[in-house]
Structures are given as C-alpha cells and as structure tokens.
Amino acid sequence: YLFVQFYFNFLTDKWFYTRVLLGHALSWARAPAAALNFNCMLILLPVCRNLLSFLRGTIQCCSRTAARQLDRNLTFHKLVAYMIAFHTAVHIIAHLFNFEYFMDAQLNRNSSLLTFVLSEIGTNDSLPFLNPIRTNETNPTIVMFTTIAGLTGVAITLALILIITSSMEVIRRSYFEVFWYTHHLFVIFFIGLVFHGYGRIVRGQTSDSLNISNPKICAEQFKTWGQNGSHCEIPVFAGNPPGTWKWVLAPMILYVCERLVRLYRSHQKVVITKVVMHPSKTLELQMKRKGFSMEVGQYVFIQCPSVSRLEWHPFTLTSAPEEDYFSAHIRIVGDWTQALTFKVQVAIDGPFGTASEDVFRYEVVMLVGAGIGVTPFASILKSVWYKHIQNNQEIYFYWLCPETQAFEWFADLLQSLEGQMAEKAMTDFLSYNIYLTRWKETEAAHFRVHHEAVNDPITGLKQKTLYGKPNWDNEFTNIASNHPGTKVGVFLCGPPQLGKSLEKQCLSHSEADVKFIFNKENF
Questions:
Q1: Spatial separation of the C-alpha atoms in residues 195 and 199, rounded to whole Å
Q2: Class of 268-352 per CATH?
Q3: Cell cycle as a keyword (predicted)?
Q4: What is the value of pTM for the model shown?
C-alpha cells in the first residue's frame, strides 16, 4: 500500500518539473523509501524480548493462538530484513538512474531544452536549485561522497551488506562472534537513516509557486519565464522535510529501554548452586536468582563476563517451575562454551519465550524431540510429573537422536522418572520411545551382544532403544484407538521436515471421536 501510494504521490503536479529531469525513476526511488521507513520501524520490535514477554503474558488470557505467534519473532525479524534489503536495492538502483539523468541535463547545454533551463535555476539567481549537479564538469561520484544523502547512503548500504551477509546460517553457526558484532552495526544504520533526508536533494515545486505558475501550462512557455508580459514565473523548488525519524523514533526508544532492562538484569546476582559436567560434553548449571520465576519451555540468555561482556547466548531451561532452582544444559561445541567451563561465573537475562502451559490443557500429549531439540522436554516432563499427582494425564514421548553420546544427560532424567514411577506404582504415566537413527558397525555389534540385558546398553533404561525412525502412521493410529473421544496435543521441537510430517499425520488421523492438535510453534 505504501509503495503504491508514494509512487503515485510523485506523479502529481508538484513533481512535474522533477519528472521532466528524472522521468519515472523519481517514483521508483521514493516509493521503496517509504516502504523502507515502514520496515525499519518494525525491524527492532521482534528483538525487544522483554516487550514480547510482557505482550505474551498480557494476551495469553485472551488468545493463546495470538500469544504463540509472538514466539515466531525471529522469523518475522528475518522477513522484515529481507524486505529492507529488497527495497534498499530498488532505491539505490533508481537513484543511480536519477544521478545519470541529472548529469545528462547538465551535459546537454542547449537553452532550447527545458531540462537545461531547469538545471540552470539557482546558478545565476538566488533561487533554490532543482538539479543538485551544478556544472557539467561535476562527477556524480563526487556528489555522492560530498552530500549528506550520499555519505549516509553509502554508510547505510555498507552496514546493511555486512549485517545481512554475516547473518547467513553458515556464518552464524561457525563464526557466531562475527554475526554478533556485525549485527551491532545497526546503530550506524539507524543514525544514517535518520539523517539521510536532511540534504533535501530531491525537490519539488512549492505550493506558492504552483499557485502562480501551473506547470502543465508554463512548461511549454519556459523560454519566457519571468519576463515582462509572461504569466509564468520561474518555478521555485524545495525538498520535503526529513520524515524518517517519525517512523523509527518510537521503536528506537523502546529498544533503548529494552537494553536498559537487560543491563539492570545482568547486574542481578546469580548464585550457581551446582555444576555437572556430563560425559557427552554437556555442562549442566543449576542456579538461583532472587525473584526468578519461570514456566515450562522457556529460555534464558547467559553471559559470562570473564569471557565476553557483549556476548549473550540463549539456552533452554531444563528445570521445572516446581523446583527451587533453574538449570540449563550447555553443549561444549565452540570457543565461548569451551571458555565457560573454566570460568563459571554468569549473568542471566530472562526467562523468555513460550510458556508452554498448553501441554496441561490435554488429557493425552505426544512430545516429539529430535536431537538437541529434546532440551525443552526436560522441563516439561519434570513439570508434568509434579502435576500428575493432581491431574490425570497420559504422556507419549518420542526422542529421535542420530548419535549415542547425546543420550547420556537426558537418560539420567528418564532414569529418575522411571524410579519415581515404579515407586508410586504409576508406570502408565509415561510411555517413552527412544530412537537411534544412525549408528556405526562397531556399535551395532555391541548392541546385539547386550540386547538381552535388563537395562538398555545405550541409555541404561528399562525401556529398550529402538533403531531407525518411528512409523508415525502406526503411532497415531494406536494412540487414536487407545483414547477415543479425546483431544491429543502434539508438541514438536525439531526440524521443519519432521514438523510437516507430523502436521500431516494430525490432519489425516483427526476424526469425529479423536482430534490431534499440532503445536510446533510452542517451542
């Protein structure tokens, strides 16, 4: 809407003479600029995580669906960034044409041409110029680097290129520090954006001038402009006042407040009560902080000041709200996590993210985790167990993992649940299925030898590990037949391909007497 509106706004009489020089390239430059302002207004909001947490809590009571949409904040942030990149490209290309047209008007020095007459306005008189290139000896590149619009435009473009290229998944995963530090170039981007229009290079005819000299009539009489007996005065031009600040000021203030809240939280004392290094290169931190309150499935940002005062990394909470501490399991996979193991002193910001209390709305729940995606279910399984004493709920848990080492720390939790279920004679509370999707030949031989053992050779659980991938059609059919007349909540934390498969199964197995509700967005 903004693009179309601003495109046609620059086809009015006010911009008649500007279009004589630039043609439709004028509208093609100004329309994406309007769309850029709108998207730059939005880009900071999805990363104001304290604001999102407040909004989620506010609208949770009214609409759970709307609250879950807030959990897609980073997806929205990326989509807005793509639109900023697209409109920036269109804006730049259009202005490159504009500068060429400005230059052509100066080079073709023929007083019988309207383009030359318009370009000469402001040269031998005190009137404001229309053509920012003042002589035929000027290089457009020099104008680009000696004007406010040119300098800020170059700074904005370079910052945007660095931000976008460093945000590619391969860079973000392999060189997170590069992604983290270059993303802070957004400060330069927004400063340049606010001041970009202060030069008022693109100008249109003023309202007073339009009342005196109608361009549709006077354009044909340009040779007699301002002469005695002429009804057409020399047109007067002015640029629009800069308006980008009106779009981005409020989001910038919100983001500054967000950073101040984070700064305050980072100085709150965090007491580490227990540190466990699991054999699978997974560090478990159990912590306490005054006033800390969490829900299942949430995450926190952790900073280690002795490693870096700027880097904050998100980790899912693996403790339950009913426990007197909160915990996170951190895989040692990079420089930052490696350094953390030797300097365990942290600051915490959060908790954030989905409060997955939808789990407790269903009598029957399917939890599906893939690989490291099992982490949120640690909190959920613990909390469901604590609540099961009051609530009659049945859980079907599936974990798909490509390597045996990753089973270790989570198997400890499952072993604890196994013992508690046996102690309270509630073995039907949790049906869990663990799948190993890849294995080596040497491991296969070991599994065969110990397959008859009481406990599983991989996890140490009573429940045996299954090999390969689940037959989801059979699983959904069995659950539907075991629980007629119920709504089954299906919760996934895993790759998109698995999500599509489970969503398809939910649709195909939902019938009159049983309904499967897919909830991937909860995590």
A1: 8
A2: mainly beta
A3: no
A4: 0.81
